[in-house]
Each structure stands twice: as C-alpha cells, then as structure tokens.
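Lab channel / #folding
Pinned by the channel admin:
"Please post every new chain as: sequence first, then the structure tokens as a reply. Keep commentary short and put observations after the output so the thread stays searchable."

First post following the new format, from NK:
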Amino acid sequence: MRLLSKVHWRPSPNLLLALASLGAGIAAFVLARQYLQERVTTLEQQVSGRLQTRPVVVAAREIAIGQIVEASQLAVRQMPRSYLRSDVLTPEQAGTLVGRRLLHAVAAGDALVDADVAAAETQALARQLPPGLRAVTVVVDEVSAQAGLLRAGDLIDLYHSRQSGEAAAQLHLLLQSVPVLATGKRTVRTQSQGATEPPDFSTITLQLTPDDAARVLLAQRTGALTAVLRGTDDIQTHTLSVLDSRQLFAAIPHTRTAAPAAATAPAALQVIAGGGASVRNIQQVLTELPASAGTQTQGALR
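Reply from TO:
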C-alpha cells in the first residue's frame, strides 16, 4: 500500500500534444463555420438585391407595329429591378397605353414604356375624325383667329380673297359651317382638362370632306383665307356671288337729305317817328299799335 501511494501520474508529452491539436481543431472548425455562415449571408443579400422584383406592364402576346393597343394585349409580370428600365409602366399606368398606336413591334413578355406608343394627343385627334373625313391645317392671322377667342368645336365660314395685278380684288365664300378640330395644338379634349386664358395660335385644323380639303389646299396657294366665326345654332346657308372691290359700295344706297327751305323773312315796313326813320317788320309794328288801330291797319294791309 505504501508503494502505490507514492506513485504520481504524469501525462506523456504525446497526450498533451494530441489534446492541444484537438482543441485547435475544434476552434478552427467553429471559426470556419462562423465565417462561412457570414459569407453565405452576404452572398444571399447580394443575390436577393439583384433579383428583387417589381410588377410591370408587358405585352401578353406579340403586337405588330401600327396596331392600336388593346387591354387584352397587356399583362402584368414580376421582373428583376436590376434588369428594368427606369421608365417602365406600373399596373396602375396600363390604361395610358390603351387606344394608342404602337410605334414598333414588341414581342410577348417585353416590358412596355410610354415611348413605345404614339403621343396621346396625336392619336386622340385622329380618332376624332369620322370615317371619310379629313383634317386640314390652315394658317390664320389674328383677325381670322378672332384675337385668340376662336376655340376647338366652333363653326366657321371660310372666305377666299385674291387680287391679280391691276385687276380688282375679288372675294368668294368658299365653305360654310366648317367644324374647327383644333386651334394650334389645343383640341376639344385638352380644352376640357382645364380652363385657361385664350392661347396664341397661328393655325387652325378643320374637319373637311376630301373634296373640300382639296379646295382649301388650292385656295391657300391662290389667295388669302379668312375665317369668320358663326353661331353654333346657326344652320342657315348664305348665298354670296363673287364680290368685286369695284362693287364694294354699289349695294349701299346713296340718299341725299334736302336742305331745309330758308325761312321767308316777314315784310319790312319803314316807320317814321319823331323825325327819325327806322326799318321794322310788320309784326313788330302791329304789336306796338293800340288794339283798334292795329285792327284797322291789318285791314288796310290786306
């Protein structure tokens, strides 16, 4: 028993080295795992940022150039933000594309932007024209523009005037009750969006038949056109023959007012009183005489 109590256990160097290696391995494993987890988290964040999606308006099927966009041709798709243009349209803006003409062909699934379709105002004006009618733009001056008070939706008469050399100027009534589609760039649609001051414009766009459109285009090259505003309820047709400048005042009657006849002065009578003579008219003399004498004098004068 005494021999066993005096024996002390001492670990061998190999065991200590093994234990130290084991501890270092565990620590390395823990650190490596932590690093990998952080790295994975960073990569996931980067990937999710790149692949973050948003809803956009796309073509549901292929649409050819020149077609009018319909609601059935549009769809909504989730697409990565990093691959999208900044001007793509959201589902709330899809209605702005409907009814407008496509400027170039698009494939199914392509994201649409406002630049892919024609301007809304241009398209709206074309859609206002009934079948068989044309829109013709005419240059006007301030007089024809009614000082800027002419508005889209008004009715006008068009007069054509011309003068050749020394010949007298002539005026023709070219067209009547012509609807005005636009004044400058303002149409009935833009006018209804808000009341503003009368704008300045130098052109008006008219709604005409093809034959009348040809007449207006020819009239612009051969003379001057003047627009005359007429009432919206005025449907009467006016007949006007060619008016010549030499006949301008022919229809105006020339009346002369006779000069008033000169008042006949009463007869004069020479009155002698007190040695002096004076010329006085008969009425003055009669009023100054006594009543009886005046009566005798009037009888004598008669």
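NK: The first helix runs from residue 2 to 5.
TO: also worth noting, Confidence is low (pLDDT under 50) at residues 292-298.
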